[in-house]
Amino acid sequence: EKMTVRDALNSAIDEEMAADPKVFLMGEEVGEYQGAYKVSRGLLDKYGPERVRDTPITEAGFTGIGVGAAYYGLKPVVEFMTFNFSMQAIDQIINSAAKSNYMSGGQISVPIVFRGPNGAAAGVAAQHSHCYAAWYASCPGLKVLSPYSSEDARGMLKAAIRDPDPVIFLENEILYGESFPVSADVLDSNFCLPIGKAMIEREGKHVTITAFSKMVGYALKAAEILSKDGISAEIINLRSIRPLDRDTINASVRKTNRLVTVEEGFPQHGVGAEICAVVVEESFEYLDAPVERIAGADVPMPYAPNLERLAVPQVEDIVRAAKRACYRSVPMAAAA
Amino acid sequence: EKMTVRDALNSAIDEEMAADPKVFLMGEEVGEYQGAYKVSRGLLDKYGPERVRDTPITEAGFTGIGVGAAYYGLKPVVEFMTFNFSMQAIDQIINSAAKSNYMSGGQISVPIVFRGPNGAAAGVAAQHSHCYAAWYASCPGLKVLSPYSSEDARGMLKAAIRDPDPVIFLENEILYGESFPVSADVLDSNFCLPIGKAMIEREGKHVTITAFSKMVGYALKAAEILSKDGISAEIINLRSIRPLDRDTINASVRKTNRLVTVEEGFPQHGVGAEICAVVVEESFEYLDAPVERIAGADVPMPYAPNLERLAVPQVEDIVRAAKRACYRSVPMAAAA
Amino acid sequence: QAVMTVETSVPFTGHRIDTPSRSVETTPKELLSFFREMSLMRRMEIAADSLYKAKLIRGFCHLYDGQEAVAVGMEAAITKKDAIITAYRDHCIFLGRGGKLIEAFSELMGRRAGCSKGKGGSMHFYRREAEFYGGHGIVGAQIPLGCGIALGQKYSKEETVTFTMYGDGAANQGQLFEALNMSALWDLPVILVCENNHYGMGTAEWRAAKSPAYYKRGDYVPGLKVDGMDALAVKQACKFAKEHVLKNGPMILEMDTYRYHGHSMSDPGSSYRTRDEISGIRQERDPIERIRKLILSHEISTANELKDIEKEVRKEVDAAIAQAKECPMPDSSELFANIYVKGLGVKDQAP
Amino acid sequence: QAVMTVETSVPFTGHRIDTPSRSVETTPKELLSFFREMSLMRRMEIAADSLYKAKLIRGFCHLYDGQEAVAVGMEAAITKKDAIITAYRDHCIFLGRGGKLIEAFSELMGRRAGCSKGKGGSMHFYRREAEFYGGHGIVGAQIPLGCGIALGQKYSKEETVTFTMYGDGAANQGQLFEALNMSALWDLPVILVCENNHYGMGTAEWRAAKSPAYYKRGDYVPGLKVDGMDALAVKQACKFAKEHVLKNGPMILEMDTYRYHGHSMSDPGSSYRTRDEISGIRQERDPIERIRKLILSHEISTANELKDIEKEVRKEVDAAIAQAKECPMPDSSELFANIYVKGLGVKDQAP
Ligand SMILES: Cc1ncc(C[n+]2csc(CCOP(=O)(O)OP(=O)(O)O)c2C)c(N)n1
Ligand SMILES: Cc1ncc(C[n+]2csc(CCOP(=O)(O)OP(=O)(O)O)c2C)c(N)n1
Ligand SMILES: [Mg+2]
Ligand SMILES: [Mg+2]
User: Fold this and answer.
1) Architecture (CATH level 2) of domain B2-187
2) For B243, which of C116, C118, C346 is closest by C-beta distance?
3) Which of the residues A3, A14, B294, C120 could staple to B262 if both were Cys, CB 3.0 to 4.6 A apart?
4) Chain center to CA of B70
5) What is the Cα D89 distance to its own chain's centre?
6) Is this prediction's pTM over 0.90?
7) Could you tell me if the CB of A79 is within 6 A of ligand 1?
8) What is the ipTM of this complex?
9) Which of B196, B152, B199 is nearest to B172 (CA)?
10) Distance between CA A217 and CA A211 in Å, rounded?
11) Fold adopted by D4-336
12) DSSP at B318
């Protein structure tokens, strides 16, 4: 059976709302309009306006209200129409949601999910294409998830809603319409994926490629191409950016001895930089080649389609990086 | 001659205001109160309320106003009482300041400086101790500077104010009162430091230690201690986080073959992660030991003094990391 | 040409200020230019709709048809030394500021002749030489930015003003209140222009605002409610506001207007309002038809002459599109250009 | 004990609402408890000042002396099922909610018996069991948070309300307007309590706000201006407001009050206001002296009995400090505790 990521998200919210009356959805156009990207289609009809709450375009305010409701004990799912707009509310996310449990010595837990599309879409230019994975994942107190497939979307969103801590849930607009096969297990209303665990999407021997969200699909395509050249790539779908599954990443690199990191966001202080550091810290002696970091170009996103294509990683970029990693083995320290 | 960092900053603003009538200062308590940390002492008297403008506590609004004034051609210096409060305004910094020149195809330049104390101070707990170096430095369109000494503070702030692009200038509250020797050159009103260049504060042979802001002082103290154990540490004061001076860092590591990164901010996706990636990318074969990353603990800042001390890097932590780096040499790839 | 006086459709409503006169001075020439410019804008937007459907325009694209009277009425009251800043619904503001069709269509299609070199797209039109500061995608952000431009004007002692435009949805943003307070404290020469088209995406104004009296926002600043479908009323209000703010600091103009299209190209625009509502407004209040009627009733031109103008406009638009289609995309080197004015050694990092 | 009626010092000023009566019902017992509680608060704050100077309290420390009537008057009108949230000037609100001195001083000195286990410090006091939600350091942030707590109360169909407290400086924050709008749209049972002590740090209210009529903020929500130095007026207003918001949605209470200390310990508090201003208010409007006078004039206690209470209070404070000083700092393992409710394998990363 197949399911779109949109339907996976929709069914996850639906089931969790049905299971727990404390769960409610709020955000711009989530109700009468059925969601700017139709992720919440049908939920207003089913649960009514108290539980599917349309807000004005006031991110700082409604995020603070959501966090306050979570302090009280409700379980809000706050939709950002896109995560770009979460910057208007980021103080509430970092200072009011992430830090309260700690500052209060454990008195104030904040069971809230912030979700919406993150990062590049198509043709939406600089202000609507920012990837916030690394920013949020740098902050203790938050958990940061980013699904790729419909299975990811269902299992991780359900886990996020049930989780007692604030979770940032980074979706991808372009994936909403993509269909993925889903098993009966995945469709079960008890299905949940563990937070903090990466998923090996494809096993391989020669090079480890880490990716999240849309880039997992690109990495899988790259692996296909690489296999024709006899290179067997292991593809890790990170799923969770915080906690980052250091164990799975390091185990894979210890096997393949080579690492390519892939992300659509900016390179500096990005997800790839952290993965590089984590592998250098734990598996330095296993690395046979420099870590190859593939990221979005270090530029605000341009609108023109030719420039835009140059600004985000393409399958060829991943293939090229993997080959670079594979054809190099570590020389002796030159100047030791 | 000696000068405090506070006076260095004050004189830099003063001189640039005297030199260019387009430069003005705005922020909370910068005028009549003489600055929350007295960095702007005397400037209101000298330049009047149009050029030293007290604002209400409305960061989003006054940051937007500052950016708009920069669009028009003025050169605002916007003070955040601390950078923690810049989160209320971060959308204006990222979307309106950093991206406008690009989105407009070069029509709208944004000559603005955002400055104020960043990161941990003493006893101010979780909401007032966040280091934003990595966040801002991830964003193309911004330049991000962080001074350590009075020379840094003067030379870099003057360069920042003269620069035609938006600059994030991250000061440190605890350093304000520290005195550093300054040469006649440094005191010259034409003195400027180049943006994007790191400074080797101490030459060494055995291990490279990178740091910025207050941690430079700690690294220098660590070098002192290490030298007693016969370890010669090269201390790099990054000065500029974006652009990051890859050349200086890599040249040093190619000489010492060992790297310790130090920062007070959170580890994940931090400055150290990026430096690690930059060195692995460019100088992998020169590395004789895993990169050692020293960062703030991965926790919201606790208030209690004993916990706070555990939460930020201490000189001993740096010493220990440097020794770890030095006593290890790279084993052959174990599983190749 | 003879100056003539025309009554505005409805009276202005004032808040903490005496309203300007309903009798607006105009000339046959001005009326004809209003007709021509609004027709050009309308035609441009309709062509953009087609180009979007033909996949030549991508991403978000927000059309202005229905609201044209605001753009042309405002321009008639001010000079190109006064500044304007707006949100993403910016195509026609750009034309009003003297931007060319070819620059608009090139930008929409991501070509190098675009007004932002193809890098900004639909939401990020600029024309710095005529004090048009864009073109902003984040709801509400342009409000403080516009106040900041006004601060620049006042600081530089230019006797110019800034119009900072935003929608009814944006009017609820906290940064409006923050910027308004500072503008009022500092007597900035800024006019906050709320283009109230009664919906923010699919949300009717009353669902988003407890008090949808946008011209009273904040309460302590003077405001006017204006028929934004009547170019002459808009002109009168803008002229009045410019004079006022130069002397007294900020003022709010709420333009009662309407967008015919959906919010953006993905919104059919029919789930949250009735077709009757839309067609009613087209029939009763269309800004172009209002001017056409005035021209005809004052016998300034004949119906056929006006039809000819519309044909000309159509040709102009078609010609600009054809030209834009021929225009190449930006050179690849543009990817790393304009990030900084002064690059200072940031390495070009491609994926 | 006999119920008695006392007139408030000044009339309430209303905005879009009829004001409550100036005649407030009270009892001798209540007046004595007001006296005792406010004296305790005052003494605690003065002791905190000394502890700060002795370097036993670090960082930011904002004292509440002068404003005590707001805390005790509010508590007299509500129950511990109603919620309160405030900013960093939170010590006395915590006491009002039933918090203990030992917890307060331990928190201030970073000891494990602190109300936040020593992890929050002066700005981050909490008492979740009595619906006290802190203790927030970012100006304005607690306003939407409080509205969210009220949303929780309404959603859960509890007949309780939330008091969300903020200063005159915070009242200019955009998030106030955003949260107020949503609270009004959704009829949330929230009372926005502006503690107008006339300065935000060193900025007088009129320098920060074009319109310092904080009880009228936003204009469309009912508001009351209250003498915040008169505990009985505060009680009357809070009772009135609680009833109002349960039926009708949000309301604003502006408490006209005063802080004797500087903004925080680094501010001598004398550069932006005159010593005469401070001593004038101490003489004319001090909240404790007002109650003392009432008690004496109604012959509820003698001057000596009240002095005895003050001595007791002093002893209590001294004892609590002594106890707190004996209390150990948190265990090192606390560094990594409470980051999450459910840790899920995030590694403890120390420097
Ligand atoms: C901060 C922010 N939140 C959400 C959006 C998505 N968004 C774009 S336009 C819009 C509706 C704005 O309505 P209005 O202000 O009335 O302007 P109009 O589109 O009617 O011209 C929304 C919600 C955004 N761009 N920025
Ligand atoms: C967003 C933000 N900006 C600035 C500060 C620094 N700051 C702390 S308290 C304060 C003054 C607040 O004044 P007011 O709201 O009147 O409250 P009061 O201190 O008088 O109780 C300022 C500027 C902050 N904590 N948060
Ligand atoms: Mg609208
Ligand atoms: Mg105050």
Assistant:
1) 3-Layer(aba) Sandwich (3.40)
2) C346
3) B294
4) 22
5) 7
6) yes
7) no
8) 0.98
9) B152
10) 9
11) Rossmann fold (3.40.50)
12) H
